[in-house]
Amino acid sequence: MFDSFPSPWSLLKLGTQLLLVSPLRSVSDEWASLNKTLGGRLQRGIPFAQPCFLSALTPSSANYSAQCTEIQERNEDHLFRSESFGSYELTQWETCEATGEQCSIDWQNPQNSAAFSPPRECKQGSVPSYYIEVKEPNDVRAAYAFTQRTKIPLVIKNTGHDYFGRSAGPGTLALWTRNLDKLVLDKNFVPEGCSSDATTALTIGAGQHFRAIYDFSRANNVTFVAGADPSVGASGGWVMGGGHGALSPAFGLGVDRVLQFKIVTPDGQYRTVNKCQNEDLFFALRGGGGGTFGVVLESSFIASPQVTVQAVLGMYNSTRENTVKLVKELAKGAVQLAADGWGGYITPSLSSAVWANPLLSLADAEKSAASVIAAFKAVGGETVFYTMETFTDFFDTFIAPNTDPVGRPQVLASRLIPSDKFEDDVLIESMINGMLDSDFSQILAVAPYGFKDYDKYGTSIHPAWRTSVWHSLMSYFSNFDSTLDDRMEQYAKLTRLWTTVREHTPNSGVYMNEADIYEPDYKTAFWGPHHDRLLEIKKKYDPHHILDCWRCVGWKGVNDDRYKCYPRKDTTATPEVEDAKDYKEL
Ligand SMILES: Cc1cc2nc3c(=O)[nH]c(=O)nc-3n(C[C@H](O)[C@H](O)[C@H](O)COP(=O)(O)OP(=O)(O)OC[C@H]3O[C@@H](n4cnc5c(N)ncnc54)[C@H](O)[C@@H]3O)c2cc1C
Ligand SMILES: *[C@@H]1O[C@H](CO)[C@@H](O)[C@H](O)[C@H]1NC(C)=O
Ligand SMILES: *[C@@H]1O[C@H](CO)[C@@H](O)[C@H](O)[C@H]1NC(C)=O
Ligand SMILES: *[C@@H]1O[C@H](CO)[C@@H](O)[C@H](O)[C@H]1NC(C)=O
Ligand SMILES: *[C@@H]1O[C@H](CO)[C@@H](O)[C@H](O)[C@H]1NC(C)=O
């Protein structure tokens, strides 16, 4: 069912380069030699649900059946998934969407054994063929050398939360950073090579996730700004793409709080990156995106003193009519709330919204959130205020029990809503209508609007983040056995339903980590004026294009085998032509 090494046929498909470079070496020799270099640590990428398929084939195996039961029970468990190499939180990235090859259970009914019984077979899909569990810079160097020699593409995988599938890829070698779990508090942290004053900082291994960081922060009386999920990693795609959380309106994004990265760049150098050395990379890693400039092994962030957090929870009967009215009312007070440091989430499917504020006393919080009280009153709902001792308590009470759905295929579209657009009724109305026509939607009040102490020229996130208040998203789920046509229709619906929102926010942007994989004019949408400088930095550090991912800086376009599982979408905007131009420059 699973061939051990790529067949000679796939060797031919790799093109002439491999054959020219080492005419006598087969692909399986290459893998074996890599394994030897690594002291036997090369591992096979096994699809997450494989034990279920094996249990159906060998019903007598108690082991497979026990493993399958755990997979069925924990299919939507964020942390369980992030700890399995062959799992992706958005499960279309375990599959080959373009061909339908997959190894998936039925997320709507995990007990449905027809999903994993013959004639269905467990197919590798986009799960990387092999992986290396990264322990040290030499592991990364070995992978770079392997990819340069063989042209077998390389991907970096951390927790597997990427919405673009950038941590997956058919026929690839993966570097898995998930087990780099350092977590160290330093009360006298000075970025290496700087002479600035010491600050309290948390140094976090590339694989360490929010759950552990929140617990560690509470235990050590510090506050860490991270996002709304237990299992996203802080030092991987999250921070490199921006990194928002409920504290961001008051305290900034991940990119505003990171002080230093340690990274292995594609030339094999292990570099320290901060405001005093490798400054160009410091700019690129603060918004340019993961998987692009090198492999980060750890990063250090500001750890603020522990703060008391005021919270307001609003609850209402979420009929469509009520939700439209509520959001219109909330829009009226949104800019002032963000300026006062409130961050939070409006989630129609939970019939609720919740905000946190680390700056105000309870009395001031009640005054500041008057518009929230009024908005919920207007739809017959109610609001309750809470005072939490730590942000981790806020996370445990309001976020962890209601995390976003995972363990299923999900596609989304989003938009940053600038502060000067909150009186544009057409915009607000088309936004909320688009959201409610989708399967899951949310307004994330997480832009760093109230945080003015940021490095003006130091980050490469879209500047619209600084002037925006809401990051709104809508999304669709698919059944495990949906057809390619069904899925293409969902991508098409995302585009259709979001057109007015895009047109009414012409100079705004999109969060590159939570976006439509077919976002029109994505370079402008993700990075605005910073794209060209990011491309220069990409050329400097990765001239041979060892790292490459879907619509990352320096993307070569769709015509590469590693993207063969992405469905092809006809667009009038022909981004492929544009991308081919960039490729020539590289
Ligand atoms: C359920 C859910 C909740 C989310 N909540 C939030 C939120 O609250 N706030 C927010 O800002 N975002 C959120 N996100 C989006 C999240 O930030 C992105 O999915 C992010 O890319 C995840 O990074 P990762 O490293 O954990 O995941 P991965 O999928 O493993 O990696 C993501 C990207 O980063 C690259 N990468 C990973 N590790 C490294 C490394 N060490 N060095 C170099 N490149 C690396 C990968 O190659 C890939 O391109 C959420 C996503 C999901 C699915
Ligand atoms: C790598 O080598 C080790 C030890 O020789 C072996 O156990 C392992 O199966 C090999 N890995 C792969 C992917 O073949
Ligand atoms: C069952 O599977 C687990 C995980 O693969 C393995 O570690 C264990 O040795 C297996 N047990 C038996 C009895 O085969
Ligand atoms: C955190 O603060 C509490 C209360 O002030 C104190 O008892 C505890 O020792 C502190 N913990 C650490 C690790 O500093
Ligand atoms: C919500 O509103 C609908 C329509 O008015 C009504 O039928 C339903 O009973 C309400 N639900 C609750 C929980 O109040």
UniProtKB/TrEMBL annotation:
Residues 124-306 form the FAD-binding PCMH-type domain. The keyword Signal applies. Keywords: Oxidoreductase, Signal. GO terms for molecular function: FAD binding; oxidoreductase activity. Residues 1-26 form the signal peptide. It comes from the Eukaryota. InterPro entries: BBE, FAD-bd_PCMH, FAD-bd_PCMH-like_sf, FAD-bd_PCMH_sub2, FAD-linked_Oxidoreductases_BP, Oxid_FAD_bind_N. It holds the Pfam family BBE. Belongs to the oxygen-dependent FAD-linked oxidoreductase family. This is FAD-binding domain-containing protein. It comes from Pholiota conissans. The lineage of its organism: Eukaryota, Fungi, Dikarya, Basidiomycota, Agaricomycotina.
